[in-house]
Amino acid sequence: xxxxxxxxxxxxxxxxxxxxxxxxxxxxxxxxxxxxxxxxxxxxxxxxxxxxxxxxxxxxxxxxxxxxxxxxxxxxxxxxxxxxxxxxxxxxxxxxxxxxxxxxxxxxxxxxxxxxxxxxxxxxxxxxxxxxxxxxxxxxxxxxxxxxxxxxxxxxxxxxxxxxxxxxxxxxxxxxxxxxxxxxxxxxxxxxxxxxxxxxxxxxxxxxxxxxxxxxxxxxxxxxxxxxxxxxxxxxxxxxxxxxxxxxxxxxxxxxxxxxxxxxxxxxxxxxxxxxxxxxxxxxxxxxxxxxxxxxxxxxxxxxxxxxxxxxxxxxxxxxxxxxxxxxxxxxxxxxxxxxxxxxxxxxxxxxxxxxxxxxxxxxxxxxxxxxxxxxxxxxxxxxxxxxxxxxxxxxxxxxxxxxxxxxxxxxxxxxxxxxxxxxxxxxxxxxxxxxxxxxxxxxxxxxxxxxxxxxxxxxxxxxxxxxxxxxxxxxxxxxxxxxxxxxxxxxxxxxxxxxxxxxxxxxxxxxxxxxxxxxxxxxxxxxxxxxxxxxxxxxxxxxxxxxxxxxxxxxxxxxxxxxxxxxxxxxxxxxxxxxxxxxxxxxxxxxxxxxxxxxxxxxxxxxxxxxxxxxxxxxxxxxxxxxxxxxxxxxxxxxxxxxxxxxxxxxxxxxxxxxxxxxxxxxxxxxxxxxxxxxxxxxxxxxxxxxxxxxxxxxxxxxxxxxxxxxxxxxxxxxxxxxxxxxxxxxxxxxxxxxxxxxxxxxxxxxxxxxxxxxxxxxxxxxxxxxxxxxxxxxxxxxxxxxxxxxxxxxxxxxxxxxx
Amino acid sequence: xxxxxxxxxxxxxxxxxxxxxxxxxxxxxxxxxxxxxxxxxxxxxxxxxxxxxxxxxxxxxxxxxxxxxxxxxxxxxxxxxxxxxxxxxxxxxxxxxxxxxxxxxxxxxxxxxxxxxxxxxxxxxxxxxxxxxxxxxxxxxxxxxxxxxxxxxxxxxxxxxxxxxxxxxxxxxxxxxxxxxxxxxxxxxxxxxxxxxxxxxxxxxxxxxxxxxxxxxxxxxxxxxxxxxxxxxxxxxxxxxxxxxxxxxxxxxxxxxxxxxxxxxxxxxxxxxxxxxxxxxxxxxxxxxxxxxxxxxxxxxxxxxxxxxxxxxxxxxxxxxxxxxxxxxxxxxxxxxxxxxxxxxxxxxxxxxxxxxxxxxxxxxxxxxxxxxxxxxxxxxxxxxxxxxxxxxxxxxxxxxxxxxxxxxxxxxxxxxxxxxxxxxxxxxxxxxxxxxxxxxxxxxxxxxxxxxxxxxxxxxxxxxxxxxxxxxxxxxxxxxxxxxxxxxxxxxxxxxxxxxxxxxxxxxxxxxxxxxxxxxxxxxxxxxxxxxxxxxxxxxxxxxxxxxxxxxxxxxxxxxxxxxxxxxxxxxxxxxxxxxxxxxxxxxxxxxxxxxxxxxxxxxxxxxxxxxxxxxxxxxxxxxxxxxxxxxxxxxxxxxxxxxxxxxxxxxxxxxxxxxxxxxxxxxxxxxxxxxxxxxxxxxxxxxxxxxxxxxxxxxxxxxxxxxxxxxxxxxxxxxxxxxxxxxxxxxxxxxxxxxxxxxxxxxxxxxxxxxxxxxxxxxxxxxxxxxxxxxxxxxxxxxxxxxxxxxxxxxxxxxxxxx
Lengths: 805, 805
What we know:
Chain A is an alpha+beta fold and 805 residues long.
């Protein structure tokens, strides 16, 4: 059977169903990685086999990291295959040995990666994944003898223990607290560390254990082991040519005086044609020592975890669980449109990226997160709304907890030990009511408003009150003309010097707040909080006027004014003339009337809609501006400085659709949908199956280059704007709106959509080839009024036929 | 002429005069480095050619670092030599290419290192040093054609720009603010960076430039260049096999969109026997932008610096200046004893280590300092007392500035932007009066007491008052029985959990304070500060009693009591029974009477004086103790946990000498004097020419292994105890004491000693072979009374003949 390859290029392709991306050349322009997580334990693996792992829920993953490697700007747990007779060795992934191969492919899937290789007549297939229910990652290695003689091989695993460290020159400080031990009975090596970078409950530094036992085990008898980087790698060698493989057996160092690493060597002898599977596990078991404020790990039993998973059967069972685990999270909604890129990304990869990396692992190759971002994971949690809204609810509560009584919040926070920066960022706090509204629309679960949550500085209140205080705090920071102050920055962190003296304004925050008031006023009224409702109504009216009066620049809206009163994002400026955010949100929020919407759309089309998406501003700043902020310090065209900042670019899809511009909405989507970049991988450089944080703008010599993939808030939003705004299926308080805004060329599309307790099988017929306009909807064969599906709440599946025209 | 080699082993040897250490095998057990500094600009270079550079005076050198390399756990600026015809290339030092060589040696000297090599018939000699007066390092590369045919070579330099970064995953954040440029006229590449990890004067993060222009220039026409790590090294290659050397010319990338590096390639064609020299420079010129509180760099001109030094003549002139510069700092005192190890270390290497690394560079391979340690550089500054006491005075003032009005001080501080941890460490503050006394004895310069210095929290006072407040603050933290509280820790930082509740006591602090009061009482009396003098007298008397009553354990002194009242360093303990510090300082301070001194000496001999020096405690802790502190978290035998902590071990030399134990004082010295470890380099591992911070104690499987060299407070003290306590020549308020306490075996020694405005040529005659006891001293042929040389203050040199007996 020949596999049908989609979006194929010289580096790889999507499988026909889009559930796997197959890399065929390890020398991709950048690491094309997979970020694999079960919500607690996470790891990263690149197409070369590099990677690292950490306990993900804890945030601060530098401090919870289990292992990493330091060579080649890449991390790794490595697997060596050695022909014992010829003494040749290679690796089961391309790194670290980088041997010439006869066959090589890496299959990145949802929750796993597989490295298939043929070298020296030996086929190897190494599957890596993390068990859904325990902090254990599994390396299932199958070797097949495709030569015509008996082959005596050994397999040798290797990685450096990391055990949660702060930055440290050459591991010289932290390694001296590590203790390794070989456990013959368990066929395992184990690690403890007597120092963790957190203060104890008295506030004393360097006085607690790393709260885990690290382990590395193998499913068959150990031929030899080593726990010392120095003897395995060698002081003047590296992982490509480790000294440990120059001898028959490894050095078998262990204890407290080496440079903690883990290597397990096993013999595998294969008859011609024979195949054998060896299972390795790596994991960490909490000691549950309760030595640190905020860390109350339940004790876990390393030996039990080793026994459960370190066998061929255990690994098989665990992999089945992985598949079920992810199916629950991503299969509640499925679309089938004429655009495979949209289908693959919407059905699998964007959900996976948002959940596995962004919400759970919280780190990737380019960026290591310090904790939860207040705005970030709150927005991301919308990815759960269709499949598991209870997880979105949990996220809302978690963020409400990070608020002070006055209403402001931590810009981000640590989950171990707590704490974070309390800033005068002007939008952080408002995301709570914003995301709350999406949750209410999807679930109709108003009980969340009554959930009582503590403040950081004492006292407690229900979620309604938390939201109210956020809004009130925002109200207390307006300019004399009624526009929200910029403060330390708004959504665009790089606008960091515009408003520190609390004079500069952000028109975008005005629009954002306007939109929030729209949904919060009815909540206040429903609770008879009439005084506050009235206040909000007044502010809302005034805001529309103020933004339109002071924020209008003639052909578009301004981004801001500075403390010194200068306009930012104005035709008066030579650089940063026009910013995307205040213009698309003017449309999304309804601040802009129909005429201004048209004018704004024209301006966006003229200045911002570029080949690879909508730019965040134009033209880029070419010199640092100490009165604007560090956005001006990026190279022109890079990231927030005149590049396509993908997170914001997704909202331009929403804005175009809200303006009824079906072709433009699709264009704005198509240009940032990663598989569409398959035909120029050396320019794009980034993975084709996840979103990048940014793509270079036209002033960059690498125009169109994708940057900082995986850990970006764009994944959830790109999924959401496709379903909610292009396909037009979006939740409302009293039903499910169906209002497609699609390319006229499309004949239609189908979509399976779970909404609360009901599943709708929607078929949209666009045989008349319009962009928009629902002519008729039949629900289970019966025509309904309007374009909103009722909440049938019957646990059944229903057929919906939609005709455009 | 055959060079006489001293302390030769398989890795290298000292030259006959001890001024150079020559490494003949690059695969030393650990990096055997040189730390080269001019007091402002510093760099490290290992025997493999690895290294990094930074502006040293600034402290926080992660943030002022100019370049570094990331492979092989080693840093580097690299120099490739390529045979253009054969396309073979190798490096002028062993790294990164690690080519087989016909000859290889590295000569580490005072202020320079030279890499001599012969590969493929080409001799190369690369001398690296930093100019004394400017932030410029020089690489003078001489290549000689020893083959019998014309050789067409090119030289290619390479390093990664670092430009002051915080820890950052794979340089992904910081690299995007760097900007490189090739300057054809200057034959140079330059670097700017538009972000530095400090807040601007408003407190805004990410809003200032890195305040330097980095440059790299070469003395002859550039064949090609590259400023991009990715094109030079290659995404999946490394510095050993850089892709840049696969082509005739380098890629010539520059600008803001690469991964900033520097490579300059020049052609060198050599007739048989011909020799040519190429000079490369690397440096940084301050922009002087004055954007950050506490940074007022004077603007420097990169082009001027390039022109001055980037030529064969410029380099020669600069190297002459280097030699004069260091001669001034180390040649004011010179000893000649029967012990070459003592001579080499005392005359050159310990002074060099203390000044170049510890006071100036403030970082080394194992440890990167965050700034100035309050105690650390104050003690180190004693190294200047003989040669340039004005530099010690400057250091005293600098530390007085880091004091709060209440008398306590920063445990360490940042020089850029200020700030540091204000702790309840119990000894930090007392080092100011302690070192002041050494300064007064050496210089008789009492004007320092009147120098007015600001406090950190406002106000100012003279240095006398600063010292007084330190003492008064210490007085306010006594236990009810009159012993100083441990607080957050004493000199032993790892005793971090003994006294945080301000109940636990430190007997060592009692002794230290006692010694300080001895010297401070006369200062108070001289200023008619009689009330304070009386107070000090009372405390002093009481302290002697309290330590002797509560601190005496029967055969030795206790280290401490904990907040819970447990004894630490007592025969009642199973681990940490006896600590070195309270016992040697009881002798040094005079707290112990003659009988207890004898008892204590016996106990030290029995438990602590081991093969490689005196242990800090015995036996080592084998389990973490949350009531003692992180010292118990080190592996048993490592560092402060039952190892030889060299800094403290030097004081045991003092104590033995103060007790009149000439043989033991010399033994305690000999065992930690690095050249003496030449016969077991694979066990010792560390450089033979600088002190290590520690050596493993007997519980370590690597008993005797040296660790954490160069950046250690032991260098200055090992020099001082040799001259002041073994050779017995030490300054007093009214003259220079000569009181040798030497091995009886010695026939004598000579010493040149500058004391204030006079130079004494001292010859000690021990033909009767005693340890101690001056029978007669002749000054310029005339016998004098007693054993104190008068302060002749005549600018002349005088002959001193000392006869022991």
